Structures are given as C-alpha cells and as structure tokens.
User: What shape does this take?
Amino acid sequence: MKQFASLYKTLLEEATPKRVVLLPGGFKPPHKGHFKALEFLINDADAEQAIVYIGKSPRDNITSEQSLDIWNIYKEYINIPVDVIVSPVTPVKNVYEFCDLNPQHEIFVGAGEEDQDRFSYFKKNKEKYSYVNIVPIPPQFGRISGTETRKKIMDNAPDAMYFVPDEISEQDSRKIKVILGLE
Assistant: This one.
C-alpha cells in the first residue's frame, strides 16, 4: 500500500501532467455502486490515474482495513492505475490537500448529489483551482444502501454478498467473504 505522503511526492515529481480522478468516501464496505461510480468518473474524465480515499472510522464493525482490502480486489478490474488510501484525517481533507499540491495535473473529484457542498471552496475559487473539476456522480444501482449492506453482513444473510459488482470473479467474491468474516 502506498502511503499518503509517498503518493503525493510521486505525483509531484512527475513532469507530465495527468488526468487524475479522486473518489473520497467512507466505503464501509465498498459496494457495486461505489465501483460503478469510480468507473463513471474515470470514463467521464478520460482519466489516466485514480485515487480512492477511504474514511478511517469503522461503521457497524466494517473497518477501513476491510474496505482497503476490498478496494484492492476491485481495482484489479479497473483499466487504469488505482491507488487506494486510508485517509489519516478525512477523505475530503485529502482531496483538498492533493489538489493544493498537484496543480500540474487536471483533477476530477467525484461527488454524489449530497456531497457537492463539501467542495464548494473549489467552485468559489475557480480562478485558483482552474485545474480542479467537481464531477457530479449520478446514483448507481438505485442508490444501493451502505446501511442495508452492513445489516445483511452483520446478519450473515443469504443475500449478504449482493453488494459485490457483477464483474468480480467468484474467486475474488470468496476472498471478500473471508475479508468480511462471512466464510
């Protein structure tokens, strides 16, 4: 896993500007809606690199480490390099820091309808952040519910694995079951 500071340093040292997408969130657990949101963002931006920031706080016994392990499986199904980072403070703070440190790149920040206000500073200061684009991500899969997903996992419901994207192989789905303690 690349550390937060190391990733910033690596991108700062690169001379060629890139189209980078940032997807911040809690991701407890990352579900098919999150996976499709990342694909949407990558395709919309014609991105060359993606960074997923995971919130560090657990939700209903789903930890950031479990989310990281699941995203590390998902990223193998994405056609560009994806770095997945557990945020030391918050994913939103990491987005702002990344943008401040990387003005040489064209940056696309994915935000759901309810998250648009978190990035209003970029919009209010467009002259300074002309290289930052806030991309509204439409709901995926009818707004799949993280709360409902966690409940099914906690109950070890027969359909607990409904949240896994269809693209994920049966072998990788089994790995996700193990990560979540369902097997």
Notes: Helices lie at 4-13, 32-45, 64-74, 91-101, 120-124, 146-154, 170-179.
